[in-house]
Design brief:
Blueprint lengths: L1 H38 L9 E4 L5 H10 L6 H10 L9 E4 L6 H10 L5 E5 L5 H9 L6 H8 L2 H5 L15 E5 L5 H15 L2 H9 L4 H14 L6 H14 L6 H8 L36 H8 L8 E4 L7 E4 L2 H17 L5
Antiparallel strand pairs: 1-2, 3-4, 5-6
Helix pairs in contact: 5-6, 10-11, 10-13, 11-13
Length: about 350
């Protein structure tokens, strides 16, 4: 009997040991599974960025991640997101993905809104519509939303502009901002830069030529449109300031082209000079109501620090170098103009 009891006790102990070993193995597998779900690499290299639009739900985010193959195992991502309470903490933005990121690291980044800013650089954009379209490719708002504010008299009035001159607020540069920046915040950012640019010194220089900051930019847009080479800008600015002081019409060809809204024109013919538009400086004295393009900072500075000269007329040189022939009187100007017209005829440029 004693032997039977000992044998029975040994069997029971073995059973207990086996159960313990099984539990340890099970716990080990559970722990490993838990670790892999949270801390194991899961992000693929299929996409560099995840874009989450304003108002997106977790289901929208999950569908994008799954559809674009951003993670190896979408089920563990879903499980992790649910357990980390990310489902109710979705934040819009542009998120930089790194191959091999774990679910935990990815979800922590998304839930905290730790996004990477974008660099928005712009220059030489002629029209507001072009500007809105360009910006909409860099940040979340579409061109319609941006144009809506540009064309809203009540909105731009808050910043001291009209819908015709608000384009002078946007100074060519490189700006860093978040992808999900709203149109209103974008305007606020641009205005802050505008205010920073117009230092007391620059405002004083504008006052010395009897222009305000907006008028300086409008004139600068004409100077920029006229000058192929930046070196000529101060000379051209001096010429136009001379005409403004004398009460003469600016008679700038680029303003006529802008009024015609045909930027393929290379030769401004007499019939264009009678276009009924406030931007036609052959008809109207003074500056047009708004810029004819986005002026560069160089053009603005050229107006503020213009060359003191006696020029009243200019014409493109006949060598098509992009430089201009300047004149102080009509007689000399007509000689220069005839040379250029003859060069156009020789090249069969009719318009």
């Amino acid at each position: 009997m004693a032997k039977k009891k000992a044998s029975s006790g040994g069997t029971f102990r073995k059973f207990i040991v086996a159960i313990v070993i099984i539990l340890i193995i099970a716990l080990g597998f559970t722990g490993l599974n838990y670790y892999l779900k949270y801390f194991g690499p899961n992000v693929t290299g299929n996409r560099e960025y995840l874009y989450i639009r304003t108002g997106a739900t977790f289901n929208d985010v999950f569908d994008t991640i799954k559809k674009d193959g951003m993670v190896k195992d979408s089920t563990t991502f879903y499980w992790s997101a649910k357990n980390m309470n990310y489902i109710d903490r979705v934040k819009p933005g542009r998120y930089h993905l790194h191959e091999g990121m774990s679910n935990r690291k990815l979800i922590n980044m998304l839930a905290s809104g730790t996004q990477e800013p974008v660099t928005v650089s712009f220059h030489d954009l002629r029209l507001k519509e072009q500007f809105a379209g360009f910006i909409s490719k860099k940040i979340e708002p579409d061109s319609v939303a941006i144009l809506r504010l540009l064309d809203s008299a009540s909105f731009v009035q808050q910043y001291g502009f009209t819908t015709e001159n608000v384009y002078t607020m946007f100074l060519p540069n490189s700006y860093q901002m978040y992808w999900n920046t709203s149109p209103e915040k974008f305007f606020k950012r641009m205005y802050a830069n505008y205010e920073k640019f117009w230092t007391p010194e620059r405002k004083q220089k504008a006052a010395e030529i009897n222009l305000d900051t907006i008028q300086v930019s409008i004139l600068a847009s004409i100077v920029d449109a006229e000058a192929l080479h930046d070196e000529e800008m101060p000379t051209i600015a001096g010429l136009y300031i001379n005409r403004l002081k004398k009460g003469m019409k600016l008679e700038s060809d680029p303003t006529v082209i802008f009024a015609e809204n045909d930027f393929t024109i290379h030769r401004v013919l007499l019939r264009y000079l009678s276009i009924n538009s406030p931007y036609n400086t052959y008809l109207h004295t003074g500056l047009p109501p708004g810029p004819i393009m986005m002026p560069s900072v160089n053009a603005i500075n050229a107006v503020l620090y213009y060359q003191r000269n006696n020029y009243l007329y200019m014409c493109a040189k006949a060598d098509f170098s992009g430089d201009h022939a300047f004149a102080t009187n009509v007689a000399d100007h007509l000689i220069n103009a005839h040379k250029f017209q003859q060069a156009l005829n020789e090249r069969n440029i009719k318009r």
